[in-house]
Amino acid sequence: MNHPTYSNDQTSAVTQSVCIVGAGPGGLSIARALKKYGIAYDQFERHSDVGGIWDLKNPGTPMYESAHFISSRDLSGYSDFPMPKSFPDYPKNSQVLAYVQTFARAYGLYDAIQFGVGVESLEKLETGQWRVRLSNGDTKTYAAVVCATGNNWDPNIPTIAGAFSGEVRHSVTYKRADEFKGKRVLVVGVGNSGADIGCDAARSADAAFISMRRGYHFIPKHIFGVPADEFGESGPQLPIWLIRPVFSGLLKMIRGDVTRWGVPKPDHKLLESHPLLNTQLIHHLQHGDIKVVPDIKKFDGKYVVFKDDSREQIDLVLFATGYKWSMPYATSFFDWKGGRPDMYLAIFNRQHKNIFCLGYVETNSSAFKMFDAQARLIANYLNAQFQQLPSHAQFDQLIASDTPDLSGGLNFVKSQRHDVYLEAHALKNYIAKINKKMGWHAVKPGDYSVPLPTSWELKNAAPLKHDRIAVAS
Questions:
Q1: 373 class by beta-carbon count within 10 Å (0-12 exposed, 13-18 middle, 19+ buried)
Q2: Beta bridge partners of 387
């Protein structure tokens, strides 16, 4: 593989500047890391403020009014910037947005963001640099590009045989429960969003159904009154062969046999798929507010026919079937596997140097601290490169040839979503191992210390007034 190197005449401020695409949670994390190292960067955000998918006003966001974090408050914040104790155990979307915007203020990240400006395309130059074409018509040249636009924007809608006379939508268009009033609703898919939306349908629709292709292990959000992820992290890190039977037995004792309410028996072991944290759906199944139906076989006019040949009259089919991982401005520069970009540590492009992804990862952990670990590794690598440290070339060799097992001993479900799935502890531990090997600094408590806002300040934070909308420097 050809990894272009930088000659000594490529050390100007311009050629050592980085382009960050997106100002959602991941983009802000890499901005903070680059700023700490004094690495120059420009950040482009097509929306009018930071927050990414957590801003319901952001066109195309998959967020809906009833959405909450599926990881808990105390484990979900950025390093050195915890979520306030005034937040509930599982913050709602508006609280997460306020937190992210307050984070950007606290670290002065708004200053380098150009709002209302998207990245249209990238061109790799013979020098190894990247020419970036912006939506305002400008072009700029950078030493590196960080793609932080996220993977929940391009809806995946399956093709169904037959014709349907009712309404068909993807969950990306869904915002509030009153959209279901007076309708017979079928939600297709039972990921965390599908389960949430199914609960909204159970409360608001005339009749509600949820189509499940396979069975899942339902994990309650609280175990003995403690958030499930905190419960899992509170003890020693035990081997998976010991964790799984203990936790499975505990869940069965707490939750019982969910197949009693029509949920298919899981075809995989606990922890071998993305965790489904939802007990409200079980509540609505127990009370008959929603009914489980099989996978769809075909449409037939106003009816949906299922794989067992049963049928239901339906007004609205809502596909909660996930998203394609697309980067229209950079697609050709990545090797795609199962619809996902295949990268080293879910960050580094093996074919093209200095184009990185942050947040393009499926894992079983809270996202923000994972972003921080990934962002610091990118910043360490770029710092070594720009300072011409030997660790730069050493890490290039790892990018080209290292193939670590980051499954954490889990045999993940064979599906497109899980083709590039990584176990969070395995990934974080491996990143820590690399930092140590390279002599680089990992994220440690106190690295990013700033005065923390009070709960009142966070709750009452108004949108920051800025004049960087659709203005290119």
A1: buried
A2: none
Using the predicted structure, report yes or no on whether residue 67 has a pLDDT greater than 90: yes
pLDDT tens, residue by residue, 424-448 = 888 999 999 999 999 999 999 999 9
The pLDDT score that the predictor gives to residue 357 is: 95
Q: Which of 56-60, 144-148, 257-261, 457-461 has the lowest mean pLDDT?
A: 457-461
Structure tokens at 410: 């889990």
The answer to whether 302 and 169 have CB atoms below 8 angstroms apart is no
Q: What is the rounded distance in angstroms from the CA atom of residue 32 to the CA atom of residue 450?
A: 12
Banded model confidence at residue 197, pLDDT cuts 50, 70, 90: very high
What values do phi and psi take at 369, rounded to 5? -70, -30
- Calpha distance 217→239 (Å, rounded): 20
Residue 217 to residue 258: CA distance in whole angstroms: 9
Hey, how many other C-beta atoms are within 10 angstroms of the C-beta on 466?
14
Domains of the chain: 18-154+323-459 (3.50.50.60), 157-319 (3.50.50.60)
| Extended beta strands in 274-405, E state | 276-277, 291-293, 296-301, 303-306, 311-313, 316-319, 323-324, 336-337, 340-341, 355-357, 362-363
Give the residue among 43, 19, 33 at the shortest CA–CA distance from 112: 43
Distance, in Å, from the CA atom of 352 to the CA atom of 343, rounded to the nearest integer, reads 11
Q: How far apart are CA 452 and CA 29, in angstroms?
A: 17
pLDDT digits (tens, 9 = 90+) for 364-384: 777 899 999 999 999 999 999
Residue 8 has pLDDT above 60, yes or no: no
Round the CA-based radius of gyration of the chain to a whole number and report it.
Answer: 23
List pLDDT tens digits, range 277-324: 888 999 999 999 999 999 999 999 999 999 999 999 999 999 999 998
**Spatial distance between the Cα atoms of 58 and 64, rounded to a whole number of angstroms:** 12
